[in-house]
Specification:
162 residues; alpha/beta; two-stranded antiparallel sheet; 7 strands; 17% strand
Length: 162
Amino acid sequence: MEPIRYVDALNDKYGAMGFPPYRWSENDSAPWTALMKPLSDCTVALLVSGGISHCSVAPFDPDARNDHRVDAIDPEEATDQYQIHDSYYNHADADADLNCIFPVDRLRELADAGEIGAVAGRHWSGFMGRTYNRSKVRDESGPALVASLKADGVDLLVAIPA
């Protein structure tokens, strides 16, 4: 089986719309930071970029570019209360079981089993689409998310790209 050439497919799609080839961000200065306490004592949050939104709010634009929207997600909400709007990947399996790309039920099971300390009071969905204006992520959207994570007492964020 031939692997999916994701970057090539995206460059072809957006090149046809007049956009330049995508430049991946590289960060050589981010230090590795080990956990300061056992995982069994950590509060864990999830962040997914797969276009997941609550059915009661406007869906994400499936062909988004430079979308800095970040939605808070209630970890107690049933997974059938969410929708997926993203044209960058085939989400048929995630439509059947959201845990494929947003493992909120699995995270609750880990907390119940004592493998993690607690599930954070909020999870996050956002940073969807091709982001050309990375400085806004670095200077605004990212720091705002970090402030929310700190306010929630999050020790560990699991980032799930879609």
